[in-house]
## 1
Amino acid sequence: MKSSLVLLIPAYNAENSIKDVLTGCLHYVDPSRVVVVDDGSEDETAQVATQRGVRVVRHDLNRGKGAALRTGFQIIRREHDCEVLVTLDADHQHDPRDVSRFLSEYAATGADIIVGRRNRWGTNMPLSRKCSNGVTSFLVSMRTGRAIPDSQCGYRLIRREILEHVEIESNGFEAETEFLIKAAKKGYRIASVPIRTVYGKEASHMTRWTTTKRFVQTLLRDY
């Protein structure tokens, strides 16, 4: 399976964490099978990633996570004949060791999309995030008709074939919700797998009001 795997990492101002993330990722794949999309970072993110020998693409300006994912998907469609890809964040809130959990779940279920499921309670996840994740996951589950316990988690396994049929248009964090809604509408199977809940002192790049507004707009849009 490892030879059929590509890892995609959207990154923004992650110079202090991306080296460790890549070190973990390279236990699973060769550097040529890791794609980092630097979304207009103002630090040395691109340089640190390049030093590890991975494929780095850089946006001149910060466009948003959805735009970074879209660029990464385009590169994978064009350059990689893989079976699955795994997306994970560059800030180390997604532990690369959990890649093995996604691969095991895929081998067991053959699901088209597998979304990471973090424990909200009894962890160091901020209270505001616990509440918002619970509410948004309930709403996305209702909208898609699928049980998605942690719909806002960007740690995901996706069958490459889906990239040919599901195109995201949103530029911000709402793109991850858009992707799930569109995939469910096309009948793709969505599963989840438990992952480690990692929260440190890093600042979130989400803007609460803007992110909430765009999420609601995405949830109500007729795709």
Note: The chain is about 35% helix and 15% strand.
## 2
Amino acid sequence: MDAANPLQQLLLRGLGTTTLVADRLRGVSQAWVSSGRLDPSEASALVDDVMKALRGETPELEQQAGRNLERNRDNLLQDIGVPSQREVDELRGRIDRLEQQLRQLNKID
């Protein structure tokens, strides 16, 4: 390993950390299986799920996080008084109807 290459060092440390977490998770899940707190099939599924999450292979979790972020953003905007797109669209429709009524009234006069 080239000591002058910080990117390479970071990558290798990340791989080492991931391996350490995987080994520790396997050990803990096996201890839970031995003590009867976890079914063997559940233990392997748990290890697989955590490893997928560590590798970034969980699109459903990313989608859920994205939905939560959008919901929090929407709530924040609502709390500070920014209208939603639906509200703006409704107001535009009302304005269009009022302008149309005004034009019709001006034609009558």
Note: The mean pLDDT is 81.
